[in-house]
Amino acid sequence: MKIKVLTIAEDILGANEEKARRNQERLDKHAVLAVNVMSSPGAGKTSLILQTINGLKQKARIGVVEGDVASTLDASKVQAQGAPVIQINIPGGCHLDANMMEKALNNLPLGEIDLLLIENVGNLICPAEFALGEHKRVMLLSLPEGDDKPYKYPLMFAEADAVLINKIDLLPYLGFNIPAFNRAAVGLNPRAKIFQVSCKTGEGLEDWFSWLLAEIGEMKRAGKSHI
Ligand code: MG
Fold it and tell me: Among 21, 127, 152, 222, which one is most buried in terms of CB atoms within 10 A?
């Protein structure tokens, strides 16, 4: 099946926060948990999404929004796993916003999705500033990037509900100081849950899956209480 591509120019204005709130209401109505996955390029967002689709395929129906400056490379990988996916291409852009998210929601079967994973554009700055209507924000950092990133990009860490340290299988080869990183991340944001994972070997992913399933459960219970 051909992948649907939405190309969105930068002429879209509007109150982002208000639109994000409406997006979230729409997601709530369908009891869809939306998770905004943010990281620098190459940290492993797509690998995490593919592992999550595979790991939760018996337990949750997953849809995906792929944000990229160009190409459908990541969306093709997601589609090959059988998940509904919308690619948003943003020529010259560096983040997704609530207008783009609304267009993605218009093109997804929300009644058939429990968990919507949003792969934001690879960038540690702008994505943290634009709400999409997501319920949870996830910051993914890979070991080769270094343990000083919380000090350099504080907003990204301060706003995260979960921080995943990816490529943990490389720990023996790199000078990444896990306790120092944890101290810095917790100092910015004591409520964030920190996971150590390898999307290559699968190490640590069960804890991440359990966290997601608990959040999906919360969403379903909240949805029932509204009826
Ligand atoms: Mg990717």
Answer: 127
**Span from the CA of 73 to the centroid of ligand 1 (angstroms):** 8
The secondary element (H helix, E strand) that includes residue 5 is: strand 5-7
Question: From residue 143, how far is each of 45, 55, 151, 173, 220 by CA, in Å?
Answer: 14, 23, 15, 10, 34
Which residues form the domain of 108? 8-225
CA-CA distance, 101 to 134, in Å (whole number)?
A: 9
Q: Is residue 3 part of a domain?
A: no
Query: In the chain, what percentage of residues exceed pLDDT 90?
Result: 82
Report how far ligand 1's centroid is from the alpha carbon of 12 (Å). 24
* Among the listed residues 1, 34, 3, 2, the one whose alpha carbon sits nearest the alpha carbon of residue 102: 34
In the chain, the number of structural domains is 1
Distance (Å, whole) CA 145 – CA 76: 26
- Residues less than 5 Å from ion ligand 1, measured at CB: 45-46, 74
Give the pLDDT of residue 223: 76
Q: How far is the CA of 46 from the centre of ligand 1 (A)?
A: 4
Run of H or E residues at 105: helix 98-106
Q: Is the pLDDT of residue 226 over 60?
A: no
